[in-house]
């Protein structure tokens, strides 16, 4: 558990305990069509003899607060789609459709439309249809200008193309795809460290744009790349760097008994991480446990496929580590 | 637009404007597999030659505030599943799986587990699997004990069994299935009218239990009935009474050029509606526009099927009206 993150009010131990309780409860609703989760990024449901649906839900978290503070509402919908569609893509599934849930204190049609514009933009980038949504007004419960966004994405994958730990072997190569910045993780820490130090509209040292612009930079959406590479048999597994860092997420794509070594310094560091390091005083391990540190998607590939994957990725891609015996995942 | 409801802070005109803007934006993401919405309760997506997926998202709204105020958290998850699964069932689709999104100020594993217990209970009642979920902690943005719940349900339907306006004819019978009370609609009005007048833990005149118990009574879940009746060819269309009253929702199941006459008094009135009528001073039309008034699901059937449907329903069922020429839907 990250000490810096607990200071920012996020309790990852309580979250882990809640997740365990939920998993136990949910098992009571299991039907024969529910497939074992492979990797845990999305739920899998058998739709016919050879295909599975993959479904994931997520929110944008407190990055929304930056949008609210600045009034720039038209990009956090991209983050919302990214968080869900890239979880779905980690199974190899192609995102088919998306639904959004927007809770607001008061419905202002212009503000709602701005938020949904971002969702539409995200759906285009992920290649899925916006199939529906709900805008819920909570007068007296939420402040008039408060809002929260949740998203749901469903994809489909041929069982033979399913990515996951079952395909991973010792010696496989870990390729990292560049993030665009913070994505949607660690914002409680960022807000508690950076907002007291800098106005959102000034350009902090080391950055080339305002803090607001930097903090609102939308997540990369990796799904089209991941799906295309998976379909061509070039991937064994994929891990979305979300809700924690590389070391927290990579094990979700590894089988029992295998770990990985990630070599820091194999990719360029985005300046925002330097600024957070400096202002928050967080340790390097805390930073790596909380933030993506420049890598938003991890692909695990056969060594002979690595060059192909590096060449075909539309995101900057780096060979950053390898799968190792034993269960330890370390960033060295 | 309900005058009483605007007083309670809910702006249905703004909501309608937002919905129109969203529909326009969403059309840009349309893919060939997206089917025309029939009735508008759920999005439809073609998964193979003969089957469609139906997907819907919804929240519980400010009914959650009653759960928060009383600390009784283990039933609003049933409402959440009901709101989504019964929208899906209006297409004739069998709910397959459900995902929940829970946003909290602070993760308290016991409280989270209580909320999810309700979701699990709802999934059992709807016959679907809880395939996944997200618990998001928003420290500093939401109060520690604040929470919001959103849900997402996917079902599947044979194209030949699809319910909707395309099947409805003049002279069809409207059957209403009894609600268990307020369900999850009109709570902003209920809260503004009843909470200043009564303590949640006392039994108001005309009720046989405390106001808290009455206001937390979970929604009925109609999906298993609707799906079974649809599969046996007994239904033409179905309309979930949600986000408004009977007159607001029935048109979603009717084709252009047809309306309906609903005869008030054909079903027993639940005492909670009498209490709301008395305390809020809302007009009968406002009440019918805001609340389900005792009917939570509307089934449109061939006159010759009506007796079968009435006999087979596991909810109390009443013949409450008929489909008429012209587009007016009236409660007389």
Can you give a write-up of this model?
Two copies of one chain form a homodimer. By secondary structure, the first copy, chain A, is α+β, with helices and mostly antiparallel strands. Chain A has two domains: 31-161, PurM-like, N-terminal domain (60s Ribosomal Protein L30, Chain: A, 2-Layer Sandwich); 165-331, Phosphoribosyl-aminoimidazole Synthetase, Chain A, domain 2 (Alpha-Beta Complex). Helix content of chain A is 33%, strand content 24%. Chain A is built from twelve helices and twelve strands. Chain A has helices spanning 3-7, 12-26, 63-70, 76-89, 109-126, 187-194, 211-216, 223-231, 246-249, 271-280, 284-290, 306-312, and strands at 34-35, 43-46, 51-59, 94-104, 129-137, 147-158, 173-178, 237-240, 258-262, 295-301, 317-325, 329-331. In chain A, the strands form two sheets. A six-stranded mixed beta sheet of chain A has the order 1-2-3-6-4-5, with helices on one face. Chain A has a six-stranded mixed beta sheet with strand order 8-10-7-11-9-12. In chain A, a hairpin with a 4-residue loop joins strand 2 and strand 3 (51-59). In chain A, helix 4 (76-89) packs parallel to helix 5 and helix 4 (76-89) runs parallel beside helix 8 (223-231). The longest helix of chain A has 18 residues, at 109-126. The two termini of chain A are 18 Å apart.
